[in-house]
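Sample entry follows:

_____
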Amino acid sequence: MGRKQIIGNHKGLPQRWRFKNGSYRYVVPKGQEANWDGKTEFTLGKNLAEAHRTYAGRIAVGLDNHIKTFGQLIDRYLLQVTPAKSDATQTDEIQIFRKIREMIGHNDVAVFRPQHAYQMRDRIQQEAIKGSGETYANKIMEKLKHLFSKAIEWGVIGEHPMIDSKFKMFPKPKTSQISRAESIDQVWNALHRAVPWMQLYVRLKLLTGLRQVDLLSLTVRNITKEGLLVNLSKT
């Protein structure tokens, strides 16, 4: 009887890895059990950093010229580059590489061209669920761009297909700019645009001249028959 199909929370991980019962595990290829303590499934560790260290100590990453597909390139990146990063970054990278692997994992790295990058960028943007999708697409493509940089470093390819002269990310959205008021009149005239609580705060600020710390410390006990009684904080 053949082995059960590997399913579950393993997408984006190196080939033959999976997460099961709180640990990262490696499904040993048939015939290589002797190299893995005679086991068909070897426990690598409870977190990614530990799993990467265990795996690296058990098996050498293939020679550079053995990397042909994006899936193989991603595997090496996850084994050699990702472990040096924080746990949060590792988790984020696995999710990003999961998307890249789904789209081009079986494709040959050497035949990737700038037009393929544009097609991939546009497809990610169009399929995005939240927002315009441009920020998400840029995030994926930025990681792919760095993946190509490592591919050059490792001798997999000789030329980068996504350098700035060949590929452009989606333009970053412009941040809104708030002009500083030059007079109290300008503040007063623009006050109607603010939310109600901000309008009340500014009105009280202009009427009393109190500092922020004193204004935010006010309670109903500061209201007296004579008016507003405030004990100013020390400077």
User: Anything to note?
Assistant: DSSP finds eight helices and three strands in the chain. The two ends are 79 Å apart (CA to CA). The first strand starts at residue 17 and ends at 20. Residues 1-8 have pLDDT under 50 and may be disordered.
